[in-house]
Amino acid sequence: MKPVVVLCNCDTVKEALNDNGEEFGARGYMPLLDKMCNGGHGVIGSNGERWKQLRRFSLMTLRNFGMGKKSIEERIQEEAQFLTEEFKKTNGQPVDPTFYFSKAVSNVICSVVFGNRFEYEDAEFLKLLGFFNQIFRGFSSVWGQLYNIFPKVMGKLPGPHNSLFQHIDAVQEFITEKIKMHKETLDPTSPRDFIDCFLIKMMQESKEPESEFHMLGAINTTFDMFGAGTETVSTTLRYGLLILLKHPDVEERMQKEIDDVIGRNRAPCIEDRSRMPYTDAVIHEIQRFIDIVPMGVPHKVTRDIHFKEFNIPKGTTVYPMLSSVLRDPKQFKYPNLFNPGHFIDENGKFAKNDGFMPFSTGKRICVGEGLARMELFLFFSTILQNFTLSSPVDIEDLDLTPELSGFGNIPHPYKLCFIPR
């Protein structure tokens, strides 16, 4: 119900978020997000000093627990092996990959946040992943979008959007319980995981009335890490395999590169990526093509600013339309087609592209970008090293357009067979 500014194309988004990062760096108002983060707590929904402190803390803690280092790479490799074993158990029968991926991806972030992974059969874990799946779908549904446009009206009406809030509450209850359990066994001299580090920070700042490290902050920051670290990467893997089913020639070429560089007798590692330009290009192109958060998450301007011949008043919500960047014809030759050639130069080497912005850019770039990129490379290459993908339906009938397109782009449900190589 308020005016918003929408930024379109690569140059405009970069100029706003990178060159004028300070002015465009605040989080804009989005009723669903506001409801989810209890009025601006946690990293994703907060602003000002609170955001600075929580983001700095989260980045530092993730790094201390191995993000971008060998230790987290080993966790992902281990999880990729568990996933491979799960796929072997399917005996080449058609399966829906949705929860296989969310279990594996979530376990990586769980080991950092909660200090342990869950067994794939764990009923509580499966319930939790079901909630996250429904939250992401709910945000992208018509009901979710209506709530964002008419929050006051929708807040009073019955409808599926109310179950979305129940799912959010259920996840936050689970996290609250975990934090209480951590409190009872906390050893301030040797933190086990993200939650321990947050609790220690709460103790250190307990005398400061203005501290951002309190129970609400702990719940929402953990929720952000856990949720963002699960749903986007697992959806990218699921959507990516659907694309590879549709393009068996791409899958075949990736497998040839995997066989040449890694072989079949050892696990893929992150060092392999620089010697695998085609696989790297395909993963970038999958991310570009699926365009997972098409509108980006809203920003707002922190002061009156004159931008591109327009005066934008302080506090205006700004949508950096990531879709218009990922499909910018100036950056990509075939913006609406899946084509790994977008990321390969004339010498067959991997080519960077300014239009590659699935994690957004600037001050609000996704905290977990490094982790997500590592996961995508290791999971994709491990799966294709061990299996050939096969579709139980004619590939002509596979639909690559999203089933839901709102906050996120979500692929149609599908089944595939993992045929051991």
Automatic annotation (TrEMBL):
Cofactors, names only: heme
One GO process term, biological-process aspect: epoxygenase P450 pathway
Subcellular location: Endoplasmic reticulum membrane; Microsome membrane
GO molecular function terms attached to this record: arachidonate epoxygenase activity; heme binding; iron ion binding; oxidoreductase activity, acting on paired donors, with incorporation or reduction of molecular oxygen, reduced flavin or flavoprotein as one donor, and incorporation of one atom of oxygen
Keyword Disulfide bond assigned: no
Keywords, comma-separated and alphabetical: Endoplasmic reticulum, Heme, Iron, Membrane, Metal-binding, Microsome, Monooxygenase, Oxidoreductase
Keyword Endoplasmic reticulum among record annotations: yes
Catalytic activity, EC: 1.14.14.1
Major enzyme class: oxidoreductase
Membrane topology: Peripheral membrane protein
Binding residue positions for heme: 366
Gene Ontology CC, one term: endoplasmic reticulum membrane
First-listed, main subcellular location of the protein, grouped into a coarse class: endoplasmic reticulum
SUPFAM superfamilies: Cytochrome P450
InterPro entries in the record: Cyt_P450, Cyt_P450_CS, Cyt_P450_E_grp-I, Cyt_P450_E_grp-I_CYP2A-like, Cyt_P450_sf, Cytochrome_P450_fam2
Protein family (similarity comment): Belongs to the cytochrome P450 family.
Protein name: unspecific monooxygenase
